[in-house]
């Protein structure tokens, strides 16, 4: 006999489900399917899409380059203040992205803490450039990677690392040839989350990098702008973003994140 | 001095290990002891995986104590082997040579030769999860030997195997250890593994060496209750005066046992459970030690029945036939006479 789930749990669950799915349904229902082809081929759309994919991928690469070692440090090296550091790393996770953008401006802007020296010494200006977009996305997305990889490192059996050490492996070799392959699923999951977060980044990007088509106008920015002038275009752009996200998640989920 | 010469001092909270350990090149030393005695800690200290608070670790005269594990040149076989799950058997074995700076092709050729030696040439491309327990053990051994260590450490190398595989792997391991030119230290809690594999046994209890010697010596002359239980002997400590040994019996006077060995002073007295006879009424006849005790346990022990009797005056284990159990109605609580011939006892200095 199949027992019915109690209504007190079932009802809110269905409401929650509807709340999550309904907006996506709205997007699909109101899409201008007849003109979809021509709208998608518009250069602004393609440009924004290209910029979004490129910057999100670069941001993910930066997150991997710096986030994985940071996660290793937090998981493997005991040092005073580790708890504080861990808390600091997760701040961008809860910080409103706009505030993140402002903070980035204050640090890396032309007159910022570090930015003024970059400008004076190297003639390097980050705000309102494509590089600025990548930095804004990296800032917001990195905690996802660090948390995911740190969790994987903590869960991994450290005795494999001991075995590698007895075979003569230096700590770097142990990391490269044993630790990293063991936590690869965690790294991949973190990278996917990281990429998705970067792809959708809006607040920090518009604050730090502005909204210049072809240079800093990513898909979310284009959606927001189009909503004021051409709502139909906003729907098309949103659909594209939705499709890309779903495609990537579906492709990677089974392979790396596992059946959750 | 060649081979291993170490004094290991490890302090961790309430646990305290202080153990002197030596092994000549080609010698296999087994660390035998109950769980929590510090055997594995001693092994990990030798490998550099546990920090030592003092002492020394010298291999072929070189002091290794200040070195991290990766620079000690020691081979270690771990209890559950710890084969890298993402590498093939071949690459697991090639890992050490690669770390020593050998080229990939060269390291793989060396690894293939090692796999061949342990009889697994045909499983080279298999991942560890595709290997049976016995095969994984052999790959782990090949991996440890491939770094050509001067000291080989084995942590419970047979504990993860089922009884049947264990027999085969033990024989194979014995062969490989015989062919190994360096010193080897093996940790086990199984006396049989220690007896078969080791040239010398070091018994560790509570972080201290309590007895060491050749396997036959340990088996014949246990010096602690733990070792006596392992080798299946009844053991008493007492004071000898000629052919009588006075053993503490819990009352203060002491119980006197007759033996054929004539010694003076503090001694151990041991006899096999098979040498113990049980009777319902006081036996007489040839010179024997006789006392009355209560049956406290009756259990099957191979094709015999192990009957444990408790004093005062003395506790003992007796191996009798199932027929005797029925005939004598040996149930827990029964009063019996215990008899041991003087010729069956074995006395040696404490």
From TrEMBL, chain A:
Q: Does the keyword Transmembrane helix apply?
A: yes
Query: Could you tell me where this protein is found in the cell?
Result: Cell membrane
Tell me the membrane topology, using the record's own terms: Multi-pass membrane protein
Alphabetized UniProt keyword annotations: Cell membrane, Membrane, Molybdenum, Transmembrane, Transmembrane helix, Transport
Regions crossing the membrane: 53-75, 87-108, 128-149, 178-198, 233-252
Q: Which domain of life is it from?
A: Bacteria
Q: Main site of residence?
A: membrane
Q: Which SUPFAM superfamilies match?
A: MetI-like
Looking up PROSITE patterns in the UniProt record yields: ABC_TM1
Can you give the residue ranges of the ABC transmembrane type-1 domain?
Answer: 49-252
Q: Which family does it belong to?
A: Belongs to the binding-protein-dependent transport system permease family. CysTW subfamily.
Q: What does this protein do?
A: Part of the binding-protein-dependent transport system for molybdenum; probably responsible for the translocation of the substrate across the membrane.
Q: Which PANTHER family match?
A: MOLYBDENUM TRANSPORT SYSTEM PERMEASE PROTEIN MODB
**NCBIfam families, A to Z:** Mo_ABC_porter, modB_ABC
State the name under which the record lists this protein.
Molybdenum transport system permease
Q: Which organism is it from?
A: Actinomadura parmotrematis
TrEMBL record, chain B:
Q: Which InterPro entries match?
A: AAA+_ATPase, ABC_SmlMolc_Importer, ABC_transporter-like_ATP-bd, ABC_transporter-like_CS, ABC_transpr_FbpC, Mo/tungstate-bd_C_term_dom, Mop_domain, P-loop_NTPase
Q: Tell me which stretches of the chain form a coiled coil.
A: none
Signal peptide residue numbers: none
Transmembrane ranges, per UniProt, are: none
Residue ranges occupied by any Mop domain in the UniProt entry: 284-349
Fetch the SMART domains from UniProt. Answer: AAA (SM00382)
Name under which the protein is recorded: ABC transporter ATP-binding protein
Q: Which Pfam families does the UniProt entry name for this protein?
A: ABC_tran, TOBE
UniProt source species: Actinomadura parmotrematis
Keyword Transport assigned: yes
Q: Where is the ABC transporter domain?
A: 1-231
One term of GO molecular function: ATP binding
Q: Which UniProt keywords apply?
A: ATP-binding, Cell membrane, Ion transport, Iron, Iron transport, Membrane, Molybdenum, Nucleotide-binding, Transport
């Amino acid at each position: 006999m199949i027992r019915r789930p109690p209504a007190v749990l079932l009802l809110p669950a269905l409401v929650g489900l509807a709340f999550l799915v309904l907006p996506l349904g709205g997007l699909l229902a109101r899409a201008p399917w007849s003109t979809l082809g021509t709208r998608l081929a518009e250069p602004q759309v393609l440009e924004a899409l290209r910029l979004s994919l490129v910057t999100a991928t670069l941001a993910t690469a930066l997150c991997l380059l710096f986030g994985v070692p940071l996660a290793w440090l937090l998981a493997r090296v005991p040092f005073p203040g580790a708890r504080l550091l861990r808390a600091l790393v997760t701040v961008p996770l809860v910080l409103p992205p706009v505030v993140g953008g402002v903070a980035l401006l204050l640090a890396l802007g032309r007159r910022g803490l570090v930015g003024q020296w970059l400008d004076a010494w190297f003639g390097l200006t980050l705000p309102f450039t494509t590089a600025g977009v990548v930095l804004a996305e990296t800032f917001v997305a990195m905690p996802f990677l660090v948390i995911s990889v740190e969790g994987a490192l903590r869960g991994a059996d450290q005795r494999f690392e001991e075995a590698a050490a007895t075979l003569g492996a230096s700590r770097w070799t142990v990391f490269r040839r044993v630790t990293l392959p063991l936590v690869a699923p965690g790294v991949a999951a973190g990278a996917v989350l990281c990429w998705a977060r970067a792809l959708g980044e809006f607040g920090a990007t518009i604050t730090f990098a502005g909204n210049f088509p072809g240079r800093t106008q990513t898909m979310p920015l284009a959606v927001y702008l189009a909503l004021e002038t051409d709502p139909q275009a906003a729907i098309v752009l949103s659909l594209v973003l939705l499709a890309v996200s779903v495609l990537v998640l579906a492709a990677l989920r089974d392979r790396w994140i596992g059946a959750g | 001095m060649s081979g291993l010469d170490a004094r290991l001092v490890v302090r961790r909270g309430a646990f305290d290990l202080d153990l002197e350990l030596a092994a000549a090149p080609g010698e296999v030393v087994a660390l035998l002891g109950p769980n929590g005695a510090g055997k594995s800690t001693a092994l990990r200290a030798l490998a550099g995986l546990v920090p030592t608070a003092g002492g020394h670790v010298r291999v072929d005269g070189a002091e290794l104590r200040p070195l991290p594990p990766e620079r000690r040149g020691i081979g270690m076989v771990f209890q559950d082997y710890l084969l890298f799950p993402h590498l093939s058997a071949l690459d697991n074995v090639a890992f050490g040579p690669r770390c020593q700076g050998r080229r990939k092709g060269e390291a793989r050729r060396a690894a293939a030769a090692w796999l061949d030696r342990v009889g697994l040439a045909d499983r080279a491309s298999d991942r560890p999860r595709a290997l049976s327990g016995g095969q994984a053990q052999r790959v782990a051994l090949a991996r440890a030997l491939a770094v050509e260590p001067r000291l080989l450490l084995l942590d419970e190398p047979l504990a993860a195997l089922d009884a049947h595989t264990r027999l085969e792997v033990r024989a194979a391991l014995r062969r490989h250890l015989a062919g190994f030119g360096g010193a080897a230290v093996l940790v086990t809690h199984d006396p049989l593994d220690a007896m078969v594999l080791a040239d010398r046994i070091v018994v560790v209890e509570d972080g201290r060496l309590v007895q060491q010697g050749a396997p036959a010596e340990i088996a014949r002359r246990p010096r602690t209750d733990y070792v006596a239980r392992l080798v299946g002997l009844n053991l008493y400590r007492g004071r000898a005066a000629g052919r009588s040994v006075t053993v503490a019996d819990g009352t203060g006077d002491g119980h006197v046992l007759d033996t054929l060995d004539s010694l003076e002073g503090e001694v151990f007295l041991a006899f096999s459970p098979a040498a113990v006879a049980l009777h319902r009424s006081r036996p007489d006849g040839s010179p024997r030690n006789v006392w009355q005790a209560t049956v406290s346990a009756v259990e099957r022990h191979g094709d015999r029945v192990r009957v444990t009797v408790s004093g005062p005056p003395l506790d003992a284990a007796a191996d009798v036939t199932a027929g005797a159990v029925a005939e004598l109605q040996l149930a827990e609580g029964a009063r019996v006479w215990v008899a041991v011939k003087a010729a069956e006892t074995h006395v040696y200095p404490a």
